[in-house]
């Protein structure tokens, strides 16, 4: 059996350092479906607020999106390990709503939870 790169204590210390960067309030909303007369509709329910770190990467080129010219920026939010968030959930940060596209929840070596998102406009 091989020796892990970091011991549990070292990983815990690394997580403590990572969480010091998390200064932004992140409200998490999960979707459920509600039956209506016409079928179903999505309902967003608040579940929790955690501290996180939002990071955006500007795209230097204009792309065609839905027949319109636009820039598509990539957003990531870093959250504490164990945060209950999944693809399809919404994250509200500084008044803007983001859709969670994917997370690193299944990674085996985790100092923090990394979520890729897109902003609802």
Computed Rg? 17 Å
Widest sheet, order of strands:
1-2-5-8-7-6
> Main β-sheet, in a few words?
6 strands, antiparallel, barrel
- In the CATH hierarchy, the architecture is Beta Barrel
CATH topology-level name: Thrombin, subunit H
Oligomer: single chain
Distance between the termini: 50 Å
- The fraction of residues in strands falls at over 45%
Which CATH C-level class is it? Mainly Beta
**SSE ordering:** HEEEEEEEE
Q: What structural class do helix, strand and pairing data support?
A: mainly beta
Broad shape? globular
Quote the average pLDDT.
87
Low-pLDDT residue intervals, each spanning 5 or more residues: none
**Strands, count:** 8
Number of separate domains: 1
Number of helices: 1
Q: Fraction of residues in helices?
A: 10-25%
**CATH homology-level superfamily:** Bacteriophage SPP1 head-tail adaptor protein
């Amino acid at each position: 059996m091989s020796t892990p790169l970091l011991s549990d204590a070292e990983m815990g210390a690394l997580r403590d350092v990572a969480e010091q960067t998390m200064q932004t309030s992140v409200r998490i909303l999960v979707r459920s479906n509600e039956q209506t007369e016409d079928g179903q509709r999505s309902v967003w329910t608040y579940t929790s607020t955690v501290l996180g770190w939002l990071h955006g990467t500007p795209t230097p080129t204009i792309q065609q999106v839905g027949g319109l010219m636009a820039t598509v920026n990539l957003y990531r939010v870093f959250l504490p390990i164990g945060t209950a968030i999944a693809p399809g959930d919404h994250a509200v940060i500084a008044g803007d709503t983001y859709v969670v596209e994917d997370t690193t929840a299944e990674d085996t070596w985790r100092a923090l939870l990394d979520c890729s998102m897109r902003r609802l406009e």
